[in-house]
Specification:
Blueprint lengths: L1 H4 L13 E6 L9 H13 L2 E7 L3 H10 L6 E5 L11 H11 L4 E10 L7 H18 L3 E6 L2 H11 L5 E3 L6 H9 L3 E4 L9 H9 L5 E3 L21 H12 L3 H16 L8
Parallel strand pairs: 1-2, 2-3, 3-4, 4-5, 5-6, 6-7, 7-8
Helix pairs in contact: 3-4, 7-8, 9-10
Length: about 280
C-alpha cells in the first residue's frame, strides 16, 4: 500500500473535448528539464488536457516557470509571490516579479492573496503584498490568480477596496455556496481542483453546482489535491480530466459540455490560443 501511495494514478481516457489545467506546479511535480516538462504534458494531452498553466510561488519558481513556458507550446506561466512568503517582500523582489510577470507567455499574476491557515507571514505583510499584486495585474492587463485560505472576508474586502482587475480567478476555490454567489455576482471566476471530488466537501459541491458556465475553470494544483479515488497519491496535470468528469456528474451535465465550458473560459480569461489552432 505504501508503494502505491507514491505512484501516479493511471492516466484516464481522453476527454471528448480538450481542456486546460488552469493551475499546476510542474516544478513541484518533479520537472526540471525541458524533457521532463514535455513528458508531463504528453501524459496530460493523452487525457485530453491540452494546455497547462504552471504557477510560481517564489522567485526561483517564477524564473523557472517563465523558462519552462518557452520549452513547450502547451505550457504557459503565472508569476507572483505566494502569501506565505511575503514576510520579506522588498523593492528588489517586487522589481523582479514585475519583470517576470511582463513576459509574453506569462498569462496571469499569481498566485497571490491571503493565507491565514499558516503563520509563516504576518497578516499585514500578506495584505500589503496582495494589494501590490492587484495593482501589478491591472498595470499589466493580466488576470489576477488568487490564493485564499481561511481568509474569504479579507480577500473580498481588499479586492473591493483596491478595485479588481478585469479578470479575477479564485484558484482552488474553497468557499461554500454563499461565498460562491458573492464571487459570481462580482464577475470572478472560480477554479475547482480535486477537492471538489472529495465526498465530504458538501459546501464546495453546492458552489460547483451554482457556478454558471463562463465563470468556472478546472485545475489540478499538482502535485497536490489528487482527485478521488486517488486522494493521497501524487498528482499531475492529467488529473484534471478526473475532475472534469466528476464536476459534470455534480452539475448533472454531459462531460463534453463541462469540458467545453472549461476550455473556452480558460482561453478567454488567459487569452490562450485555441486548441483547435495551436
Amino acid at each position: 500500500m505504501g508503494e502505491q501511495k507514491r505512484e501516479l494514478p493511471p492516466v484516464p481516457d481522453r476527454l471528448p473535448v480538450a481542456v486546460v489545467d488552469a493551475h499546476t506546479h510542474l516544478d513541484a511535480c518533479g520537472a526540471v528539464t525541458a524533457a521532463d516538462v514535455t513528458a508531463m504534458v504528453d501524459r496530460a494531452e493523452r487525457a485530453g488536457v491540452a494546455r497547462v498553466v504552471t504557477v510560481a510561488d517564489d522567485l526561483a519558481s517564477a524564473r523557472w516557470a517563465v523558462e519552462a513556458a518557452g520549452w513547450d507550446r502547451r505550457v504557459f506561466a503565472a508569476v507572483a509571490i505566494h502569501p506565505t512568503r511575503t514576510k520579506e517582500f522588498g523593492e528588489a523582489e517586487r522589481a523582479e516579479v514585475e519583470r517576470l510577470a511582463a513576459a509574453d507567455r506569462v498569462v496571469a499574476v499569481g498566485e497571490t492573496g491571503l493565507d491565514y491557515y499558516w503563520d509563516y507571514s504576518p497578516h499585514d505583510a500578506q495584505q500589503e503584498a496582495f494589494r501590490w499584486h492587484i495593482d501589478l495585474a491591472k498595470r499589466l492587463g493580466k488576470p489576477l490568480m488568487i490564493h485564499d485560505r481561511d481568509a474569504h472576508d479579507d480577500v473580498l474586502r481588499i479586492l473591493a477596496e483596491e478595485g479588481a482587475p478585469n479578470a479575477v480567478i479564485f484558484h482552488c476555490f474553497s468557499g461554500d455556496a454563499e461565498m460562491a454567489r458573492k464571487c459570481v455576482d462580482a464577475g470572478y471566476v472560480l477554479s475547482f481542483a480535486g477537492t471538489v471530488t472529495f465526498k465530504n466537501a458538501k459546501g464546495l459541491h453546492e458552489a460547483a453546482r451554482l457556478c454558471p458556465a463562463g465563470q468556472y475553470l478546472v485545475e489540478t494544483d499538482a502535485p497536490f489535491l489528487t482527485p478521488h479515488p486517488f486522494r493521497g497519491r501524487p498528482n499531475e496535470p492529467f488529473g484534471a480530466a478526473y475532475t472534469v468528469r466528476h464536476l459534470a456528474a455534480l452539475r448533472g451535465e454531459a462531460v463534453h459540455e463541462v469540458a467545453e465550458a472549461v476550455r473556452t473560459t480558460a482561453e478567454r480569461v488567459y487569452r490562450l490560443p485555441s486548441v483547435t489552432t495551436g
